[in-house]
Design goal:
The protein is of the alpha+beta class. The chain is built from two helices and four strands, in the order αββαββ. Strands 2-1-3-4 form a four-stranded antiparallel sheet, with helices on one face.
């Protein structure tokens, strides 16, 4: 069963009304766990990287049929009051 933990919106970003996004590259192992998480780009630089990375480490996918998935890319968007995932 898949599990997707949403990132926590940083307080300093929320208070100042900052929005942004993080483009993440990751692998999924044969157990459905995320591995090799790399922040490819983010805007504004670095503001949302840590909460996105922390959440993605907790994600769990249904085990891939062919063993592993490599070079998956996920877009995490941060908007004041919400966080959304684009896969």
């Amino acid at each position: 069963m898949s599990k997707f933990v949403l990132p926590i919106y940083p307080r300093r970003a929320f208070r100042s009304g900052r929005q942004g996004w993080v483009l993440v590259k990751l692998n999924v192992n044969e157990y459905g766990e995320t591995k090799d998480i790399i922040i490819e780009r983010s805007l504004p630089d670095g503001l949302f990287d840590m909460p996105a990375n922390k959440a993605i480490k907790q994600w769990k996918f249904d085990p891939p049929e062919n063993g592993k998935m490599k070079n998956c890319r996920v877009l995490v968007r941060f908007r004041a009051g919400e966080v959304s995932l684009g896969r």
